[in-house]
Design a protein that fits this description.
The protein has 265 residues and is an alpha+beta fold. Helix content is 43%, strand content 23%.
Length: 265
């Protein structure tokens, strides 16, 4: 009798366990794929944010994560192979393929003393009225670095609905002296119908670029001198609004574009 009871108990237990496993499997199978993908994207986004906001700087050549002071001195201890592998894995997990170079740029900005900072309402209002961003249906930004409250480097995410165009770009905003008027400059042979209602004739001639006058300034000579610096550069859009100089690329943020812009400022 005891043996029969034990056998029945074991069989009942096995059936319960089997049903529980099947139920759990069914629940997993009913989980919509979109929800899984959304959670994965949110996780990647969180990792990207943590990577960018990390106070330590990643050196891609040595695989080390170092302080700003170490980067400026050029002296730091090399990581062990285990630490290097860990840092590389963190870097790969936090930045997708298209954003890796952007990540390197943000690391470079840290070494130059730039600090992570959000744009304030006044800055956003100014940018909303800029010709550089008014040409798009919508825009936002993901990363912003500011140096001494004077130079702003950020990554606007722009969108043109009817062309299904979306792109993260690089934009640099600096203050200049003795400038007046409002001008928009873009590479020649660029058809920018979106700005047709804003721009007027070309009062300033710059080689390789078309300069549209939005509001004529009182000192065209100095304005031309400022814009002339970009005459031999390709793939840039430039806007001068009185003492505000805005420079924007048409591709994803990268070190090469930032460094060539930096040399001209």
């Amino acid at each position: 009798m005891d043996i029969v009871f034990i056998i029945v108990f074991i069989l009942t237990l096995l059936i319960i366990i089997s049903n529980f496993s099947s139920g759990a499997k069914a629940v997993r199978e009913r989980t919509p794929k979109g929800i899984k993908e959304k959670k994965q994207k949110e996780l990647v986004k969180e990792k990207q944010k943590a990577w960018i906001e990390d106070d330590l700087i990643y050196d891609p050549e040595t695989g080390a994560k170092i302080t700003l002071e170490q980067a400026q001195s050029g002296v730091w201890d090399l990581p062990s192979e285990e630490e290097k592998a860990k840092h590389e894995e963190e870097q790969k997990a936090s930045l997708n393929e298209a954003g890796i170079e952007s990540g390197y740029l943000f690391e470079l900005l840290k070494t130059k003393g730039y600090k992570t900072k959000k744009l304030n309402d006044e800055q956003i209002d100014f940018l909303e009225q800029s010709a550089l961003l008014a040409q798009y249906d919508n825009w936002g930004y993901t990363d912003c670095y500011i140096l001494n409250d004077e130079t702003v480097v950020f990554s606007p995410y722009v969108k043109l609905e009817r062309l299904h165009y979306e792109e993260s770009q690089l934009m640099v905003w600096v203050k200049v002296n003795n400038a007046s008027g409002h001008y928009f400059m873009e590479p020649k042979n660029t058809s920018n119908k979106l700005l047709g209602s804003l721009v007027h004739k070309e009062d300033i001639k710059i080689k390789n670029y078309s300069v549209h006058t939005i509001k004529k300034g009182f000192d065209i000579t100095n304005t031309k001198k400022i814009l002339q610096k970009f005459s031999n550069e390709k793939g840039l859009q430039v806007e001068l609004n009185n003492n505000n100089l805005l420079i924007k690329t048409l591709v994803q943020p990268n070190r090469k574009d930032f460094e060539r812009i930096e040399k001209l400022l």
